[in-house]
């Protein structure tokens, strides 16, 4: 079992930055890869970024955020981060942290999900 808690969301002007955090706990958390997804009202939950949790840390990004967002991890704190720069109004969404057995860019690959944190980018 893995429990995930997101934090760091808020209201930010266009062009600004936010850093989201996802704190993981559980007996087997170290065996999971981590992903970030986002969902705007009336839209599907879309992939944002992913990183291997242990033994390498390969990273993957959606084209829409590549070059602006950075995913990273701090294994000592059991925490994954999403650094978001040059934010745009279209980045507004609820952001979810997820844990899965493999690094993947689709929701079905992930077994555990956090409650989400709201990011709102004003124009």
Notable features of this structure?
seven-stranded mixed β-sheet; 51% strand; globular; 123 residues
Biggest sheet character: 7 strands, mixed
Total helical elements: 0
Portion of residues within helices: under 10%
Structural class: mainly beta
Number of strands: 11
- β-strand amount: over 45%
The CA-CA distance between the termini, in Å, is 40 Å
Tell me the overall shape.
Answer: globular
Gyration radius, rounded: 13 Å
Q: What is the N-to-C order of secondary-structure elements (H for helix, E for strand)? A: EEEEEEEEEEE
Spans of 5+ residues with little confidence (pLDDT < 50)?
none
Mean pLDDT: 92
How is this structure best summarized?
The chain is mainly β. It has strands at residues 3-7, 10-13, 18-25, 33-39, 46-51, 59-61, 69-74, 79-84, 93-100, 110-113, 117-122.
Secondary-structure map:
Layout (H helix, E strand, L loop, with lengths): L2 E5 L2 E4 L4 E8 L7 E7 L6 E6 L7 E3 L7 E6 L4 E6 L8 E8 L9 E4 L3 E6 L1
Parallel strand pairs: 2-11
Antiparallel strand pairs: 1-3, 3-8, 4-5, 4-9, 5-6, 7-8, 9-10, 9-11
Description:
The structure is a single chain. By secondary structure, the chain is mainly beta. The protein has no helices and eleven strands. Strands 2, 4, 5, 6, 9, 10 and 11 form a seven-stranded mixed sheet that branches. The protein has a four-stranded antiparallel sheet with strand order 1-3-8-7, with no helix packed on it. Strand 4 and strand 5 form a beta hairpin. It is globular and about 40 Å long. The relative contact order is 0.32.
